[in-house]
Design brief:
- This protein is of the alpha+beta class and about 500 residues long.
- Among the domains are: about 160 residues, 2-Layer Sandwich (D-Amino Acid Oxidase, Chain A, domain 2), CATH 3.30.9.10; about 80 residues, Arc Repressor Mutant, subunit A (Orthogonal Bundle), CATH 1.10.10.
- About 30% of the residues lie in helices and about 20% in strands.
- It is built from 12 helices and 22 strands.
- Strands 1, 2, 9, 10, 11, 12, 19 and 20 form an 8-stranded mixed sheet that branches. Strands 13, 15, 16, 17 and 18 form a 5-stranded antiparallel sheet that branches.
- It is globular.
């Protein structure tokens, strides 16, 4: 049979983690992604939290894989060179009558195998986190909780997979499947793809693909979460990730630092019908502000630099659905991957890859490269090393993004490395140009010029995020400054 041993649908953090794990074996692997880049769905819009694993019901896949994945991430951050910080988390109890619920959460965490859990007093909480409301009653500290760059982790998995021979096809939408004697024909808008096995890691669309082939149906609800991102001047507002006691719809609104020095506040949990509905609403953002005030005081929400929303793939049973689909041999689901999906993704990748390995009797690859080097940030280098780098390549001395201090050299690296950036958002996710206080207001035109030059494309073909998201429109294409030539959309 010609084709692939495994086709993975979806280049989010789960799909990329599976690809990286399968790259350890002698197999032809391809990832199909409907968007123009990796990390374009749920994986790019979340809380960026490495959960410790105390929240999920004991005995579930969520509980097991969250704990396993959270323990894997620190070493992966070293091996693959992405940002991670073990800042710990605090679950805050604001009412005396809720103390039994806090104790129950502690016991659940112990049953799940979470280490370094401890109950903390009001006095301890206020000493650690002076911006917590003074009427806090008690809390639980999870020392293994952390924060991560979700873009960085997703991209690191994908780049390492590509360096080990995994093929990625973007702008490729799966439209159906045909089961064959050899495996599966995957029908896409870019033609058919043959594969011995298929791995469905399609996020909020995973049930749609599953239901095309399986006798047992799934149902996933897109659950929208609205967030505020605050300026770096607020970076010391919270040290731990501050959680409320979990409720019906999850862990509630949190307040946390980010690995880049910002503060993040959110999310809401609003069930919607639109699987692409990532627009924020006034009601959702007002809910974020109101609920944050339940646990912290003087939240610096006047320092908001942007708001955004992401979708969680909520499966009706609130459980990860991982395994060979019923009635569809060789079709493996990785569905219902909502929170704590980011934390669980390394363990999900290993679990699914081992299932496919056993199905296909794959052999370990001798030449597998387990490490990856990220993009060099000159600002993080010692002075002498930075000066030497700029002398060798002056592009690293030309600052393009003033807010984040991002150089032209970093942007060029983002474009030319494996699975390089092809859009403004692709550059932003890799090196944060446009992620700062002005949100690209200053640097976007120059980044567009660099993209056009390096990709050998006209400026009007450069997009914000692929597809039809062009930023330059109009009849006259001769240059800037001519009346009615260009308009931002």
């Amino acid at each position: 049979m010609t084709g692939y041993d495994a086709v993975i649908i979806g280049a989010g953090v789960s799909g990329a983690a599976i690809a990286r794990e399968l790259a350890k074996y002698e197999a032809r692997v391809c990832v199909l992604e409907r968007c123009e880049d990796v990390c374009c769905g749920t994986s790019k819009a979340n809380s960026a939290i490495v959960h410790a694993g105390y929240d999920a019901r004991p005995g579930t896949l969520m509980a097991r894989l969250d704990v396993e994945g959270s323990y894997m991430i620190p070493q992966l951050a070293r091996d693959l060179d992405f940002l991670y910080r073990n800042n710990g988390s605090l679950v805050l109890c604001m009412h005396e009558e809720d103390l039994p619920l806090l104790q129950e959460l502690y016991e659940r965490g112990r049953r799940n195998g979470v280490s370094a859990l401890r109950m903390v007093t009001r006095e301890e909480i206020l000493a650690m986190e002076p911006h917590v409301r003074e009427d806090v009653v008690a809390g639980m500290e999870a020392a293994t909780g952390g924060i991560v760059c979700p873009f960085g982790m997703n991209i690191a998995f994908a780049e390492n997979a590509a360096e080990n021979g995994v093929e990625f096809r973007f702008d490729t939408t799966v439209t159906g499947f045909t089961h064959t004697r050899e495996g599966w024909t995957v029908h896409t808008n870019q033609g058919d793809v043959e594969a011995r096995t298929v791995i469905n890691a399609a996020g909020v669309y995973a049930d749609v693909l599953h239901n095309m082939v399986s006798t047992h149906k799934l149902h996933i609800t897109p659950r929208r979460g609205d967030y505020y991102l605050l300026d770096k001047t607020t970076g010391g507002y919270a040290h731990h990730t501050l959680f409320q006691l979990p409720g019906k719809y999850g862990k509630g609104v949190l307040v946390a630092p980010t690995v880049h020095g910002n503060t993040i506040v959110g999310p809401t949990a609003i069930d919607i019908d639109d699987r692409d509905g990532v627009n924020t609403t006034a009601e959702g953002l007002e809910q974020v502000m109101r609920k944050a005030a339940n646990i912290v005081k003087d939240a610096p929400l006047r320092q908001v630099i942007t708001s955004f929303a992401g979708l969680r793939a909520h499966e009706d049973g609130h459980e990860f659905v991982i395994g060979e689909a019923e009635g569809a041999p060789g079709f493996f689901d990785c569905a219902g991957i909502e929170s704590p999906g980011l934390s669980s993704s390394p363990a999900i990748g290993r679990m699914v890859a081992e299932m496919v390995r056993d199905k296909l009797l794959l052999r370990r690859k001798a030449s597998y490269k387990a490490t990856r080097r990220g993009i060099v940030n000159p600002a993080e280098l010692p002075f002498e090393e930075r000066r030497a780098l700029i002398e060798e390549n002056p592009a690293y001395g030309r600052i393009i993004c003033r807010c984040e201090g991002i150089s032209e050299g970093e942007i060029l690296d983002a474009i030319h490395r494996p699975l390089g950036a092809r859009s403004l958002d692709g550059v932003k996710r890799r090196v944060r140009a446009g992620m700062g206080r002005c949100q690209g207001g200053f640097c976007a035109p120059r980044v567009m010029e660099i993209l056009a030059q390096e990709l050998d494309l006209p400026m009007e073909e450069i997009t914000k995020s692929g597809g039809g998201s062009r930023l330059i429109v109009g009849e006259n294409k001769e240059g800037f400054g001519e009346e009615d030539s260009y308009g931002a959309v």
